[in-house]
Amino acid sequence: MIRTILGLAIIAFGIFLEVMWLGVCFGTVVIGILLLLFAPAILFFPFNFFLILGLSVMRGISYTQSSQFKYRHSSGQNDTYAKPQSSLDKYYEILESSKTDSFEVIKANYRRLVKEYHYDSIASKNLPPDMLKFAQEKTQSLNEAYAAIKEARG
Predict the structure, then answer these.
(1) C-alpha–C-alpha distance, residues 151 and 23, integer Å
(2) Where exactly are the structural domains of the chain?
(3) Percent helix, strand, coil in the chain (nearest 5)?
(4) Backbone conformation region of residue 78, classed left if phi is above 0, alpha if psi is from -120 to 50, else beta
(5) What is the CATH architecture of 87-153?
(6) pTM for this one?
(7) Mean pLDDT, 10 residues at a time, the chain of 154 residues
C-alpha cells in the first residue's frame, strides 16, 4: 500500500515537473517548437523519467536501457523487450505502405503522394508560404523513402 502511494506520488510529481518544463519551453516558442521537432525525448524527459521511477517503486521492478533494445524490463521472470523502429519501417510508413506490399504498390503510393504534395501542385492552389515549405519537405522525405526502399529491395 505504501509502495503504491509513493509510486503514484512520484508519478504526480513527474507530471507537475513536465507541465512546468513545457511551460518554460513553450514560453520561448522557438525553443519549444525546435525541441518538439528535433528532440521530443528531451521535451518529455521529466514525465518519462518519473513515470518509470514511480512504476519501479510501485511494482518493485527495475528498468534498464540497453543499446540493442529501447527498454528492458527485468522482473526476474519473463523479460520483455521493445525493439526500436528501424529506418526502413519509417520509410514504409512515409509511403503509406507495409513490408508485405509489392514494389508496384509501393511505387503507386509513391507516385500518388508525390502528385499530392508536389510543390507545383500546391503552388497552383495559392496556399500560404509555410504550406509550400511543408510540401517541399514532404516531397523530399517521399523521395528519400522511395530511394531507400528501392535500394533495399534491389
Answers:
(1) 44
(2) 2-82, 87-153
(3) 70, 5, 25
(4) beta
(5) Orthogonal Bundle (1.10)
(6) 0.45
(7) 82 81 72 71 72 74 48 46 65 89 91 85 76 85 91 85
